[in-house]
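[Discussion] Sanity-checking designs against the backbone

I'm trying to build intuition for which residues belong where. Below is a structure token string of 353 positions. I'd appreciate it if someone posts a full sequence so I can compare it with mine line by line.
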């Protein structure tokens, strides 16, 4: 396998957390790395990690980086040698098998889209995020790649999400739900109502609408929505988890009695933290493109990067791109593209909200 390209300058804790996590994945899995960023900065960071010289690590010089506050399209035009752009072009040119970045999501989506192009039959890419549920993990998409969608885009997300769930979750017949404001098919806006009708005849196991309160119930293995809704859903969920953890900590350490109770149940709380920690999953693949790009949380720790790079390597080994392409080679895979004359076109965007 070709090395995994890693945007060493992407993320709030770059470069050390990014490089440290990538090295940990390389050491555990025996994979090669192509670290992309300013050569002197990357080399200086590498020198801080014992045993880095024993691994298959190359450095690809890229003098610029995209800052989180920059507008993606303008920044990519101004900075043709930005680390994320150089990293995706390394994949396009056959120097790496896939790319991971925890940097600016909009810039990563736009750079990957320009370098790879879309798979035949796919109109818009989607970020497929693994989320915990009361039963087994599920896939939520889109979580931020395509903010405004048409109904047929949601059908394509369902097809791609089902294929990805088979690879990532080992789910042979994934149940697909449509995120909406009610279970009834008449509920929701124009987008969800028309998407519901298209999904009923799509080549997926559609189980109907899923309300926000049921996203984490485990009633669906794949939940589809537009990127704006998906991104807001994830951000609210992260905030709720952090608030619950803080409140639990405050209550369980408030008195001597509760501190004793906490000590007796600390293993259960550690298991809870592991089940809801995004670092356990690491990243979300940008599916629908003719190249593999995995995008991590901007706050990614070394642990999250290790998980994400490991995920990237596994998706390469399991030939995710080939399996997605196979889905869209089937004549019925894009049934959702047949739209009613009454639906209004909506512009699509690859910017993250």
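Best answer:
Here's mine. Compare freely.
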């Amino acid at each position: 396998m070709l090395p995994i390209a890693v945007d060493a300058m992407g993320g709030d804790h770059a470069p050390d957390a990014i490089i440290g996590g990538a090295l940990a994945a390389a050491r555990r899995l025996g994979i090669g790395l192509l670290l992309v960023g300013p050569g002197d900065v990357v080399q200086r960071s590498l020198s801080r990690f014992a045993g880095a010289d024993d691994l298959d690590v190359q450095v690809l010089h890229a003098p610029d980086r995209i800052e989180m506050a920059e507008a993606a399209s303008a920044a990519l035009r101004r900075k043709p040698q930005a680390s994320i752009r150089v990293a995706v072009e390394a994949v396009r040119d056959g120097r790496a098998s896939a790319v991971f970045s925890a940097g600016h999501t909009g810039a990563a989506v736009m750079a990957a889209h320009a370098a790879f192009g879309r798979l035949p039959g796919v109109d818009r890419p989607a970020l497929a995020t693994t989320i915990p549920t009361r039963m087994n993990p599920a896939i939520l998409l889109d979580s931020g790649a395509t903010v405004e969608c048409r109904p047929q885009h949601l059908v394509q997300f369902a097809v791609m999400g089902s294929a990805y769930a088979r690879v990532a979750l080992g789910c042979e017949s994934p149940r697909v739900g449509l995120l909406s404001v009610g279970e009834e098919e008449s509920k929701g806006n124009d987008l969800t109502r028309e998407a519901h009708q298209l999904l009923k005849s799509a080549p997926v196991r559609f189980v109907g609408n899923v309300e926000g309160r049921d996203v984490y119930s485990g009633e669906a293995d794949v939940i589809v929505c537009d990127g704006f809704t998906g991104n807001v859903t994830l951000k609210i969920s992260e905030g709720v988890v952090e608030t619950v953890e803080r409140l639990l900590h405050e209550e369980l350490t408030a008195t001597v009695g509760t501190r004793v109770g906490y000590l007796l149940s600390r293993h259960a709380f550690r298991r809870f933290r592991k089940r809801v920690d995004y670092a356990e999953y690491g990243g979300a693949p940008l599916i629908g493109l003719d190249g593999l790009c995995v995008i991590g949380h901007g706050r990614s720790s070394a642990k999250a990067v290790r998980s994400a790079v490991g995920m990237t390597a596994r998706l390469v080994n399991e030939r995710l791109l080939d399996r997605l392409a196979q889905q869209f080679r089937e004549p019925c895979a894009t049934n959702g593209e047949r739209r009613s004359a009454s639906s209004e076109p909506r512009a699509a965007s690859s910017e993250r909200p």
